[in-house]
Please model this.
Amino acid sequence: MKQKNKKPLLVAVTGDIGSGKSSVIKCLKILKFKVWTADLATKELYDDPSVITDIESLLNEKIATNNILNRKLLRKVIFRDTEKLEKLNKYIHPKLIEKFYDFITYHTTTEPIDIVIAEIPLLYECQLEHEFDLTILISADREKKVERVMERDKCSRDDVLSILDIQMPQDTKSRKADIIIPNNESPYVLDLQIKTLSQVLRYIANTRKDNQKGDKN
Model:
């Protein structure tokens, strides 16, 4: 965990495709946490004509028609060429962090918020963990992840494995994470874990706030 002298407590949730990040985020929203998702912010960026133009120039690929990005074609391009994937990530992720801080500024100016949670699938791959006070990894067995994605996206096993193989190994992420939430069991078990996690996060945020008050006195 990295201590930062600022408010609110910034928490990143990450994990491989099929690990169950979306389920965790859904639970956290129910528990009234402020949540920002990188996937939604990325979709907003991909609707920006200037961003589309930059991406086509960066990748040297025609991936849009009438300023509408062909997301399926983009995925095909970057998953077959790791160099282009890296270029895209280096271009997109600074913009995502800017959007994240815009989100924080907007909400903290309208109401007091002690915790903001960000869902960022490629947190460690893009070396964004330094932006956060706490990182949480949602982990799952490889076969469980494959089964979930195949069922959800109606895709082949090879398709899922090709995505998993270009992501940072889960064991490596585990060594970097502050908290690990295993997600191999039922939704009920996950729900119990997230309720416990919510208590831990609120305790950390409250302790941090008390310490900051003490520093001012």
Summary: The chain has a mean pLDDT of 92. The two ends are 25 Å apart (CA to CA).
